[in-house]
Amino acid sequence: MTTVEGGCLCRRVRFRIDGEPLASVACHCRDCQYLSGGAEANIVAYPRAAFRLLSGAETIYRSPADSGAVVWRSFCPHCGTPLFAGNDKTPDFIAVKVGTLDDPGGFRRMGHIWTDSAPPWHLMEPDLPTAGKNPEFL
Ligand SMILES: [Zn+2]
User: Fold this and answer.
1) Is the pLDDT of residue 7 over 70?
2) Burial class for 121, CB neighbours closer than 10 Å (0-12, 13-18, 19+)
3) Percent of the chain with pLDDT over 70
4) Is the four-CA dihedral 16, 45, 112, 58 of positive or negative sign?
5) I need a labelling partner for 2 at 20 to 30 A (CA). Which of 16, 20, 58, 106 fits?
6) Number of neighbours of residue 81 by Cβ within 10 angstroms
7) What is the pTM of this model?
8) Separation of 82 CA from ligand 1 center, angstroms?
């Protein structure tokens, strides 16, 4: 079993994941652009049961997505680091923002999603699958 740990910039929030990732993608949707500061959101999805919050607390913001689902995204209320995201229709999964991982260097994207919303300057590997909106390759 793989264990990864991470947290926010001010280190109040710390978490640990014991399990294998289910998917790793870059999401280019307009909502993620706000929450990333402009770039795509790079995330790793894990089973919710593999995730454990060790310290700190997250503030959650919910918004309706174009898919019809309600998407929640969380951040550290002290330093503003984007932390986790999820979807009210799939509560068994949690998406972790790659920037929160203690070692983000091992991250490999398996594809790009919501590319219809990407501005022309978002970079994408040409050999990876893309989905204009919700992916079929996951
Ligand atoms: Zn923080």
Assistant:
1) yes
2) exposed
3) 99
4) negative
5) 58
6) 21
7) 0.92
8) 9
Model confidence at 138: pLDDT above 70:
no
β-sheet bridge partners, residue 53: 15
- Planar angle of CA 54, 59, 64, nearest 5 degrees: 125
| Contacts of 127 by beta carbon, 8 Å cutoff, 6+ apart | none
- 60 CA to centre of ligand 1 in angstroms: 14
Quick one: CATH architecture of 3-118? Beta Complex (2.170)
Task: State both tokens at 70.
Answer: 């309600």
